[in-house]
Amino acid sequence: MTEDDPLEVAARWREEGRKVAIATVVDTWGSAPRPVGSHLVIDGEGAFEGSVSGGCVEGAVVAEAAEIAAGAPPRLLEFGVADETAWEVGLSCGGTIRIYVEPLEAAA
């Protein structure tokens, strides 16, 4: 990951012919470290740019998004302390985060 704008990176990747998904924070509660509207872009090989949680759930989101970039349907991901993955993904400090992941289509 670099410090480039995730949407600019996604545009470059699309120009290169890569399949790309975009993950967007759509809702938070409690101690979520990234605000609603934050983006993470992921290509079909698992390369990524941006952040949706400051490292708490990026690994889980990247894995889901790589599948979506490769053709799986979009989905809404939810992580939180009440979720069975809370300790696995690092939101043990509290709160919830909802992230919508969808393919990023090429510009017409």
TrEMBL record:
What InterPro entries does its record include? Answer: MoCofactor_Util/Proc, XdhC_CoxI
The molecule here is called XdhC family protein
Q: Which Pfam families match?
A: XdhC_CoxI
The XdhC- CoxI domain covers which part of the protein? 13-80
